[in-house]
Amino acid sequence: MAPYFDPPMWEQRRICISSLLYEQKVHSVLEVGCGEGNILMYLTAPTADDENPITHLYGIDINADSLKKAELHMQPSPRDFSDLRVDELHISLFHGDATGPPIPEIAPDAIVCSEVIEHLQPSLVGSMTGAVLGGYRPRVAVFTTPNAEFNVNFPALGYGTEKAQFRDEDHKFEWTRAEFVNWANESAARYGYKVTFHDIGTWMCGADDSFVKCGGCTQMALFVRDDSVEVVDVVPQSDLPVPRLFATIDHPFYDKPRLPEDEVLQLVRKMAGYAIEYDDVFYLDMLWNMMEVRYQFKRRRILKEWLNTKVEDFINRADSDLLFINFNQDFSCLSVGTKNGYKIYNCEPFGKCYARSEGGIGTVEMLFCTSLVALVGSGDQPTLSPRRLQIINTKRQSIICELTFPTTILAVKLNRRRLIAVLEEHIYVYDISNMKLLHTIETPPNPTGICAMSPSSDNCFIAYPTPASVSVPSSKPGASPEIPATTDVMIFDANTCEAINIIQAHKTPVSCLAINRDGTLLATASDKGTVIRVFSLPSAQKIAQFRRGAYPAKIHSITFNATSSLLMVSSDTDTVHIFRVADGQKRSKGSSGSSANNGGSLHPSDSFASSINSFGDSDSVVDSYSGNGQQQQLR
């Protein structure tokens, strides 16, 4: 298969352009050379930032047939009439030459000129630049154009040869990066702007060693107006006619006046009742997502201020209460830790099956769908120390075991054979049948507790970050000049208590790990967050690589589905990516075994069964008394 872009280049361009516009908090956008309105249509969706909505969109194109298609594409859908927008949206399309004089009745905050200038004769590029930056003087302007140097990765174009071709037969030129930077810097200086440069599409999926890294397939310049610079006589002179209005499209929105105060209060109480019907915690987001409420307040901030002053019970607790949330090993249950206790939900059918209020709980890990639960407190009271691990039998509401550690417990993982406690510089491995300490792994500093353990008892592998042979400069104040870069992943067999392999995972520190259900696949992500890699276990061979996006992101979670055919990735970009993992990979099985070192301070209330394999339902946890009550200290 030939190398390809994922997402496609057109989508990467639209994502980058819209992201920059949202960051600049613009309210009106003009697209020069809008064609069929693809970018404008991308901007019609309501933004997540309700304080800065885009309310006016404009498009100019010299082709009337393209404008007819744009007019059709920009029409509101049936859903736009059923779920009305909170804010107005007016769209105006103009027919004419964009290199001519500006349209006097519009003053856009931002102008987008995407993949347009390369279609102009070189002598007209200055007129286009002057019309955009000098005539309209927008606060923000975005220009994109092909990077000619990237054509070396398209053999059919013959880059650097006498038969070299452009990417499109209508292109009049294609700039190198240096040519693009020179044009942008000269334009910024002339018209009073600051300019920054961005690469779009720097890598192609499936590319081999012949791929040449030479910036992005598309190069982008972001111009931001510098009002501290006085610019004189920048409006270009032109004999061309002013573009004429071609079509207007107005999207429906909720424009009725706000209800009387007592009716608003009654509505909020009604909607809040719906929100908390199946739970005893009310979240502001639940209310904000109800359109009837959103119509009344328009802005999330205004709703929150109103709730705080009018109804004390409606104060948003989502940001302050939730401390932990996770699925169990087979995704049949969901465990939640809050500042008030912890809860366990059944997933299908969804419903709360257990809850206990006893203070802040920072970690709630289940053993499949059994009554065995591992708890770590949040430290809000002495009995719930973040250094203390409790193993609870939820059916009998009894403490089976307590372990106290020298530092804060950052994560707990368990399966039917092993339990591990992850600290910043150690991982403690226990035999779950009797809670004897089998091994202590010394790790590099791991302040966020990055670790993964297989749910499988046979392929019982632990994965955790480890330094590579190189170091990277530290960005933390007061840190030493160089710190180890935890770019590799150590694979540890918890059955034999041996390190069995090292995976060279990424070039930047590892930020997230996940092992599939049968312990044969490991997925990794770095703190850059653009690439997800999948390796086979225990052989550590890379079998798949996925590009999550073009811009860096913080990966929150990676999860395989039950059959390991799909891989889900969530990030701080408010997106979930789902990738298909190739079937038919050869999967090796790990060996089993254990050693016999004891450790931890054992609470003699209950003990585990000698075999954990009998666990199948909530009644299968036994509570035979251990009989010795011996207190043992961790080394």
Question: Short summary of the structure?
Answer:
It is globular, with a radius of gyration of 30 Å.
Radius of gyration: 30 Å
* Helix-residue proportion: 10-25%
Strand order of the largest sheet: 6-7-5-4-1-2-3-8
Question: What is the helix tally?
Answer: 11
Global shape: globular
Q: What is the oligomer described by this structure?
A: single chain
Q: Beta-strand level of the residues, as a percent range?
A: 25-35%
Secondary structural class: alpha+beta
Largest sheet: 8 strands, mixed
What is the terminal-to-terminal distance?
Answer: 54 Å
Mean pLDDT: 83
The number of distinct β-strands equals 33
Unreliable stretches (pLDDT < 50, length at least 5) are 275-281, 312-319, 470-477, 583-635
Please describe what this structure looks like.
With 635 residues, the protein is of the alpha+beta class. The chain is built from eleven helices and 33 strands. The strands form eight sheets. The protein has an eight-stranded mixed β-sheet with strand order 6-7-5-4-1-2-3-8, sandwiched between helices. The chain has a four-stranded antiparallel β-sheet with strand order 9-10-11-12. The radius of gyration is 30 Å and the shape is globular. The two termini are 54 Å apart. Mean pLDDT is 83; it is low at 275-281, 312-319, 470-477 and 583-635.
Task: Produce the secondary structure layout.
Layout: H1 9-23, E1 28-32, H2 38-42, E2 56-61, H3 64-73, H4 78-82, E3 89-95, E4 110-114, H5 122-136, E5 140-146, H6 177-191, E6 193-200, E7 218-225, E8 244-251, H7 261-275, H8 284-288, H9 291-297, H10 300-310, H11 318-321, E9 322-327, E10 333-338, E11 341-347, E12 350-356, E13 361-366, E14 372-377, E15 388-393, E16 398-404, E17 411-414, E18 418-422, E19 426-431, E20 436-442, E21 452-453, E22 461-466, E23 471-473, E24 482-484, E25 488-493, E26 498-504, E27 510-515, E28 521-526, E29 531-536, E30 542-547, E31 555-560, E32 566-571, E33 576-580
Parallel strand pairs: 1-2, 1-4, 2-3, 4-5
Antiparallel strand pairs: 3-8, 5-7, 6-7, 9-10, 10-11, 11-12, 13-14, 14-15, 15-16, 17-18, 18-19, 19-20, 21-22, 22-25, 23-24, 25-26, 27-28, 28-29, 29-30, 31-32, 32-33
